[in-house]
Amino acid sequence: MTAFVPVILMKTEATMVIEIKSAVEEDMIACGNILNDWIDETPWMPRVHPHDDVVRHYVDFVYSNRCVLVAKDSDGFVQGFSATSSDGFVTGLYVAKSARKDGLGSRLLDNVKQDFSDGVSLWTFVANTDAQKFYSMRGFHEVRRTDGDNEENLPDILFSWKPSGEHQ
After folding, report:
1. Which of 79, 115, 122, 156 has a beta carbon 3.0–4.6 Å from 3's, enabling a disulfide?
2. Does residue 33 sit within a domain?
3. ∠ CA(96), CA(98), CA(103), 5° rounding?
């Protein structure tokens, strides 16, 4: 699926210009590295796949099977990304550590919600309380929990967003 993605520019407090747009294949290495960095800095998150396998997965699979948006700075570096399946399921939303708390995640998520206006769903880990707050503050509602029926063997939560506050 190729979604129309409007270009959104924002200025952070550091006056960095950020552009959100559809990813190109070359962006996928940076996306994989952002995810790898998040895994490495998150104490409760087990490393299930080696760094190189994560990057290869983004290059070989995610790029061709997901609607991927990237947030690039004025130097062209990817500072964050979202990956969404054709049915509106967000499989990844990550922002580089140095760019967090500047609204990038919200901007990426707003674009996903605009592109998938019938509704969006995603999983987050129970241990990721920051993500739970982030999604709840943006209109997502908890649908169900599991006790760790995933490759990380970590309890997780399915969240859903519907326009106008509709619930699943």
Report:
1. 115
2. yes
3. 75
Mind listing the pLDDT tens digit for each residue in 115-132?
Answer: 999 999 999 999 999 999
Q: Looking at 102-163, which runs of residues are DSSP E strands? A: 120-125, 141-146, 156-161
Q: Which domain holds residue 19?
A: 8-165
The predicted structure's pLDDT at residue 14? 52
Residue 124 · residue 135 · CB < 8 Å? yes
CA distance 25 to 68: 10
Which one-letter DSSP state was computed for residue 150? S
Q: Is the pLDDT of residue 165 over 80?
A: no
Give the pLDDT confidence score for residue 167 in this predicted structure.
Answer: 58
Task: Kindly state whether residue 1 falls inside one of the protein's structural domains.
Answer: no
How far is residue 123 from each of residues 35, 62, 71, 143, measured CA to CA in Å? 15, 17, 21, 10
Tokens matching residue 157: 């939560």
DSSP code, position 81:
E
CA distances, 137 to each of 27, 49, 128, 142, 161 (Å): 29, 31, 15, 12, 11
pLDDT at residue 56, rounded to an integer: 97
Dist CA 55 CA 168 (whole Å) = 34
Can you say how many angstroms the Cα of residue 146 is from the centroid of all Cα atoms in its chain?
Answer: 20
In-domain check, residue 38: yes
The alpha carbon of residue 54 and the mean position of all alpha carbons in its chain are separated, in whole angstroms, by: 15
